[in-house]
Design goal:
The complex is a heterodimer of chains A (208) and B (236). Helix content of chain A is 31%, strand content 9%. The mean pLDDT of chain A is 85. In chain A, 34% of the residues are buried. In chain A, α1 runs antiparallel to α5 and α2 crosses α5. Chain A has one domain: Rossmann fold (3-Layer(aba) Sandwich), CATH 3.40.50. A four-stranded parallel beta sheet of chain A has the order 1-2-3-4. Chain A is an alpha/beta fold. The termini of chain A are far apart. Chain B has seven helices and seven strands, in the order αββαββββαβαααα. In chain B, β3 and β4 form a beta hairpin. The longest helix of chain B has 12 residues. The chains are: A alpha/beta (208), B alpha/beta (236).
Chain lengths: 208, 236
């Protein structure tokens, strides 16, 4: 056969005249660089924030610049859940199920005042912040946030992804809800987050 | 009229005598008083003491009727060729802040042929069971409206075939949210509300079999059944 023999796999040859390029890097850096720039979003749009999300994804603001051009409407092929809009209690098990169906590694963005805190809907029907249902990485404030706001949140998430280390197992802990109550944080914490203005003062800044 | 009979369009104003003036947008309507819907006289003649009070507010006629005879009255309004109220646009309820005042159940009926609107009200005094007859056998559109009214106010529509909650999930234990004694944030703590919401399994209730239209085949109109029989795709 006229093919060149395959190189010996365990021997690294260096041939500057061959013109092959070389880069040395940390594996963490390479993996995180790849992940941060190909976050496939799972849009969970329930209200007007979803309209603003669509505007962000459309040509004017162009989420494809951040490697997010593929909206993944199947949670099993998604990396980042973007919850845009208020979540009523009736939708809480649905959101929880979608989050559990997403494979690791996965992140969540809570877009807008209602998803983050319940917003002005401090009533009997609306969940006071989706972080009582699923763990959230980035909160985007606004009612609704402008596309620039959402893009800033996405860039914060990219910064967070780029700082992850494969050696740290805690970042990939799957949420394990209490089997009887299905809550993943203590009830007292949920009550504290859900009191008026609770989530606005208690939530932690993520990423930067 | 059975659901499988052929579709007969209703022409607005077709019941009015020939040469009637064309419909115009009314102007300068008084808050109280003004012309009463002529249906009221026919109702008084037919049902007598069951018609308790008549108000004309902003040009619309509200009739307070006896709660036990609502279905009978709506049936007559729908079937009588001189009335033909064929469109039920709303079923809802009103509760007032004054605890003495009875809860009102409201039906909005429209007669397309005669261009008339009538609002029926039934008073449900506090302390009595909140029950009124269902108009589902007359108007299929009453199905979800009565379910919503039951969900929000706890009014029981006697005769409704499937009276369960519509907006809140099944097994919602906190009561009826639009009642005046219901606190805005609900009765339970947020953690308890979330626990109960997450315990609901949405997939347990709605199966693929339940969402299939196979069972409803006999209820479809004749032409649609013929099209399905000939193998026409339903757009899935």
């Amino acid at each position: 056969m006229g093919l060149t023999p395959r190189p010996e796999p365990n021997v690294v040859s260096y041939d500057p005249k061959g013109g092959e390029g070389w880069v040395t890097t940390r594996l963490d850096f390479l993996v995180n660089w790849g992940r941060a720039n190909s976050l496939w979003p799972m849009p969970f749009g329930t209200a007007c924030c979803a309209i603003e999300f669509m505007a962000t994804a459309a040509a004017q603001f162009d989420l494809a610049r951040f490697g997010m051009e593929r909206m993944s409407f199947s949670p099993r092929q998604a990396d980042v859940l973007i919850c845009a809009g208020r979540v009523p209690f009736k939708l809480a098990p649905v959101l929880r199920r979608i989050w559990q169906q997403m494979p690791q590694p996965k992140w969540a963005i809570s877009m807008g005042a209602c998803a983050s805190t319940g917003g002005m809907f401090d009533n009997y029907a609306v969940v006071q912040g989706i972080d009582t249902i699923i763990p959230v990485d980035v909160y985007v404030p606004g009612c609704p946030p402008r596309p620039e706001g959402l893009i800033y949140g996405i860039m914060m998430l990219q910064e967070k992804v780029k700082r992850e280390r494969a050696a740290d197992p805690s970042i990939r802990h799957e949420m394990e809800p209490d089997p009887t109550s299905q809550l993943y944080i203590p009830p007292s914490a949920i009550n504290e987050l859900s009191e008026p203005f609770g989530n606005a003062v208690h939530q932690t800044r993520s990423g930067l | 009229m059975s659901p499988s009979s052929s579709f007969a369009p209703v022409i607005p104003g077709s019941g009015l005598p020939a040469g009637s003036p064309a419909a115009t947008t009314p102007k300068q309507i008084p808050h109280r008083g003004g012309p009463v819907n002529p249906t009221v006289d026919a109702l008084r003649e037919k049902f007598g003491a069951a018609i308790q009070r008549v108000d004309v507010v902003w040009g619309e006629t509200s009739v307070v009727v006896e709660r036990s005879r609502v279905a009978e009255i709506v049936r007559w309004l729908h079937d009588d060729p001189g009335q033909s109220y064929v469109y039920l646009s709303d079923v809802t309820a009103v509760e007032f802040r004054d605890v003495e005042q009875p809860l009102e159940v409201v039906w909005h009926l429209r007669s397309l042929a005669f261009r008339r609107f009538i609002r029926l009200k039934a008073l449900l005094p506090k302390g009595t069971p909140l029950e009124v007859p269902s108009v589902y056998p007359i108007f299929k559109s009453a199905d979800w409206m009565e379910r919503e009214c039951y969900d929000m106010f706890g009014v029981k529509f006697v005769g409704h075939p499937d009276l369960r909650r519509l907006l809140m999930w099944e097994g919602y234990k906190e009561g009826f949210p639009l009642r005046k004694d219901f606190p805005l944030r609900g009765r339970f703590s947020r953690a308890e509300q979330l626990r109960q919401a997450l315990a609901a399994n949405p997939e347990a209730r709605y199966s693929k079999e339940e969402l299939s239209i196979a069972d409803a085949f006999e209820d479809l109109p004749q032409d649609m059944r013929a099209r399905l029989r000939s193998g026409e795709k339903t757009g899935e």
